[in-house]
Please model this.
Amino acid sequence: MGMMQLFTRAGAALAVAAALVAAPAAAIEIEEVTSPGGTTFWLVQEQAVPLVAVEISFAGGARLDPADRPGLANMMAALLEEGAGDLDATAFAKAADELAARFGFGAGRDNVTVSARMLADDLDRSAALLALALAEPQFDANAVERVRAQILSKLASDETDPNAVAGRLWFARAFDGHPYARDTDGTPESVKAITRDELAAAQKRLMTRGAATVAVVGAIDAARAGVLIDTILAGLDEGDPPDAARAPETPPAGVEIAELDVPQSVAIFGQKGLPRDHPDFIPAYVMNHILGGGGFSSRLMEEVREKRGLAYGVYSYLANYEDADLILGSVQTANDRIAESLEVIRAEWRRMAEEGATAEDLDAAKRYLTGAFALRFDSNAKIARFLVGAQEEDLGLDYINIRNDLIEAVTLDDIRRVAKILDPDGLSIVVVGKPAGL
Amino acid sequence: MHSGMIARMVALVALLLPAVATAAQPVSTFRLDNGMEVVVIEDHRAPVVTHMVWYRVGAADEPAGHSGIAHFFEHLMFKGTHQIPEGAFSKVVAENGGQDNAFTSWDYTGYFQRIAADRLGLVMGMEADRMRNLVLNERLVATERDVILEERNSRTDNDPGSLFREQMNAALYMNHPYGVPIIGWRHEIEELGLPEALEFYRRYYAPDNAILVVAGDVNPEAVLELAKTHYGSIAPSNNPPDARPQEPPQLAARRLEMRDARVRQPYVMRQYLVPTYEAEAPGTAAALSVLANVLGKGITSRFSQQIEIADRIAVSTGAFYNDSARDRTAFTIYGVPAPGHTLAEVEAALDAEIARLVAEGPTEEELDRIKRKTRTDLIHAQDDVAGLARLYGSALAVGLTVEDVEGWPDLIDAVTAEDVRAAAENWLLPAHSVTGYLMGTDGEAG
Model:
């Protein structure tokens, strides 16, 4: 049986892992295409299934909401499928069903996103329907009130959802004075105050060709993809990418508790991280994988869950926003044991900062990260999302080919150096629940 | 993370059942001599593979008083064997660039890895090894029990909506174990130990109670050879799960009100006990599926058109039918009142729509739209081969066949307006239902 491989995995498996590195590169060929209308985008042709995925990200999003209108971008995005041109919300949904096209719209802190999944056979009509939603959204009064009521309902539920409360509080505390301090969904007061004119203006301001990053994946060639993108973006203003507004760099240290009568406390912890274009970003990514990013094999999982049974899940991740770079994490533990979880997490933060990783840690992390890279590319939709992210981060067309080499090049010294950014005493922690001993 | 799908699985199956692989992703089936079923789905777009083993045992097969043992045991499967040291299973997968996890439902327990296609033999070997050779001790069991109690906190006890759905389920099933939560009642989880775990393992983890699903960049004959090598030598148990206690005739509409100080957005939910695809006439399941779409799927549905858009009584409504389960299942409807409207008003509005459907049936336009959507869903499903693997695995695990899965779109196509009307009349019966109000501790009384 194959079991013997397990005992020799340090040698044998490593050799196979090295061979794997080339796999995604060989399988995926990215083209940079400029449409007749002048929009540059990335394309991957994939003829195996008769589908085309289009992913568009408009830089900006909720961070550009006016100070007294948090939630504006979110509500605007929610209304894009609620009627356009002379189609009301119901007619628009029926038209999309008729074409078997699926459209998704959303707003995050840094962008407004459009995801389209269309049949290759009906591409022209599907693109025209999507273009209508982007160019002529109705913001019909009835639809506005219906969506407003839905958002208010969610905001009400969030008031006693410990995860929602913790997320809001962490960002409010960390980014006082910056738009990131406000929740992307807004507040009941701001959502009640948003007008139709504000929604229409936000749509025009946020969704411009200049702010758009575009990817196309599927059964389509470059020439047709260019025409497709021009069709979809036709009604948008030219526009420019929005300016950045650097956020406060260091979230306040210490623990803040929000009392909520739940049996299990939810904690969010975080600190300053590294920008995506920092030379030590890849070492930091590998370091975090070992610390808290690696699923069942991370140190936090091992110490908090596997050894002590303190939580079902615990993790950390590098969170790179347009205006701020963070290392964030979360854990959920019964009220009477949450203090112990946080103590263990701080100790792991300190151990990594002081000792770095072992050769075994680094070796295992590299083998996972290089091997699992291919798992990100097994569907058109996943590839399209990756292509948008890679363009937004300015990683370059060849990143997909060199990324595993970058991971392989990380040394123990790199990890030790970059781990110095970990600041166990400076962690900014929010706990929601009825924690004991904090 | 282990069993991350415990709550999602049921809804997921209902969503996916209309989808089947087409020529782009050929499906092959085999059966090993020891009774293990094998399904292979080819997709050569990326050099990766999803390897899944589904056991036809779930929370509904637990001994009385030991609720949660199926899910608890799922966690213990990651602990180790003589060949895989304690805690090493997931690490070995990760060190080979793979991801692994598992999930438990009432009807099945599944384990899977996503990994480079050339490592299929490695994960098969490990999965076959832990089918019979798990090594457990009291210390491992005690720590994992704490993890599961925290999982219950996260999923259920921290969320009044989850607690409410647990109560609803318990009221819907008067005798069948579907009324017991998959994760288990807290007081019973606290008592689960090594003997219960080992008994469950020995009884149910065997090749004749398992389905292998492999999807991705593979060749079916090569997969069959690997399956024979790794799984073929394991002896069958010849001891399939027993039939579960079935529901008696349900004669009384049940109602419950739950109040929790954390509830800020009340809602009303109703569940009807109805047939599944497997257990009854297949046409009934197809008609119920179309019925759920007509009543409550998306903005074009009747609930949405009438109650949200025309009358503005509710901010959200919906209807779901779980078509894939071994025994009788739930048809669920819900409504979230708009400000100034009561749960009773929303309930009356939902009832009025059902009554109208029973009287008039669906329109041809509704029927055509839903049938077309079912067909086109097939095409979209091709983009997610791991989703196809889950679809086939879950269907086979509740007793359906590959032919049943592939025949589903034709069954939907054959549904008539009268079938849908009759399904509403015959199955959305108050006597077979539970209606629940979830409310805060102040404010309206329903």
DSSP finds 18 helices and 13 strands in chain A. The two ends of chain A are 52 Å apart (CA to CA).
